[in-house]
Protein backbone atom coordinates (compact mmCIF):
# COMPACT_ATOMS: atom_id res chain seq x y z
CA UNK A 1 0.00 0.00 0.00
CA UNK A 2 2.90 2.36 0.71
CA UNK A 3 4.19 2.06 -2.84
CA UNK A 4 0.82 3.08 -4.26
CA UNK A 5 0.66 6.14 -1.99
CA UNK A 6 4.20 7.07 -3.06
CA UNK A 7 3.19 6.83 -6.73
CA UNK A 8 0.07 8.93 -6.12
CA UNK A 9 2.10 11.57 -4.26
CA UNK A 10 4.64 11.66 -7.08
CA UNK A 11 1.84 12.23 -9.60
CA UNK A 12 0.39 15.06 -7.51
CA UNK A 13 3.79 16.75 -7.05
CA UNK A 14 4.36 16.50 -10.81
CA UNK A 15 1.02 18.13 -11.60
CA UNK A 16 0.82 20.84 -8.90
CA UNK A 17 3.29 23.24 -10.57
CA UNK A 18 1.26 22.97 -13.78
CA UNK A 19 -1.96 24.26 -12.19
CA UNK A 20 -2.90 27.82 -13.02
CA UNK A 21 -3.90 30.23 -10.24
CA UNK A 22 -7.61 29.44 -10.43
CA UNK A 23 -7.02 25.68 -10.49
CA UNK A 24 -4.64 25.97 -7.55
CA UNK A 25 -7.22 27.94 -5.58
CA UNK A 26 -9.86 25.24 -6.18
CA UNK A 27 -7.34 22.51 -5.32
CA UNK A 28 -6.56 24.27 -2.02
CA UNK A 29 -10.27 24.70 -1.20
CA UNK A 30 -10.90 20.98 -1.71
CA UNK A 31 -7.83 19.85 0.23
CA UNK A 32 -8.59 22.23 3.14
CA UNK A 33 -12.16 20.94 3.35
CA UNK A 34 -10.91 17.36 3.47
CA UNK A 35 -8.18 18.17 5.99
CA UNK A 36 -10.64 19.88 8.34
CA UNK A 37 -13.44 17.37 7.68
CA UNK A 38 -15.68 20.20 6.46
CA UNK A 39 -18.58 19.42 4.14
CA UNK A 40 -18.11 20.87 0.68
CA UNK A 41 -20.32 21.03 -2.36
CA UNK A 42 -18.45 22.40 -5.32
CA UNK A 43 -19.52 22.87 -8.91
CA UNK A 44 -16.68 23.41 -11.36
CA UNK A 45 -17.93 24.94 -14.59
CA UNK A 46 -15.90 26.28 -17.48
CA UNK A 47 -15.65 26.03 -21.23
CA UNK A 48 -13.79 23.10 -22.72
CA UNK A 49 -10.04 23.30 -22.63
CA UNK A 50 -9.91 25.27 -19.38
CA UNK A 51 -8.30 22.46 -17.35
CA UNK A 52 -11.21 20.96 -15.42
CA UNK A 53 -10.12 17.39 -16.14
CA UNK A 54 -6.48 18.20 -15.42
CA UNK A 55 -7.53 19.69 -12.09
CA UNK A 56 -9.58 16.63 -11.15
CA UNK A 57 -6.76 14.34 -12.27
CA UNK A 58 -4.65 16.20 -9.71
CA UNK A 59 -7.24 16.28 -6.92
CA UNK A 60 -8.18 12.59 -7.10
CA UNK A 61 -4.68 11.15 -6.54
CA UNK A 62 -4.12 13.77 -3.81
CA UNK A 63 -7.21 12.53 -1.99
CA UNK A 64 -6.43 8.86 -2.60
CA UNK A 65 -2.89 9.26 -1.27
CA UNK A 66 -4.33 10.42 2.06
CA UNK A 67 -6.04 7.08 2.53
UniProtKB/TrEMBL annotation:
The reaction(s) this protein catalyses: ATP + H2O = ADP + phosphate + H(+)
Q: Does the keyword Chloroplast apply?
A: no
Q: What class of enzyme is it?
A: isomerase
| UniProt keyword Nucleotide-binding present | yes
According to its UniProt record, what is one Pfam family this protein matches? PIF1
Q: Keywords, A to Z?
A: ATP-binding, DNA damage, DNA recombination, DNA repair, Helicase, Hydrolase, Nucleotide-binding
MF terms from GO for this chain are: 5'-3' DNA helicase activity; ATP binding; hydrolase activity
EC number in record: 5.6.2.3
* GO biological process annotation, one example: DNA recombination
InterPro entries recorded: DNA_helicase_pif1-like_DEAD (IPR010285), P-loop_NTPase (IPR027417)
The residue ranges of the DNA helicase Pif1-like DEAD-box helicase domain are 18-66
Write down the required cofactor(s): Mg(2+)
As for family, the record states:
Belongs to the helicase family.
What this protein is called in its record is ATP-dependent DNA helicase
What's the source species for this entry? Hydnum rufescens UP504
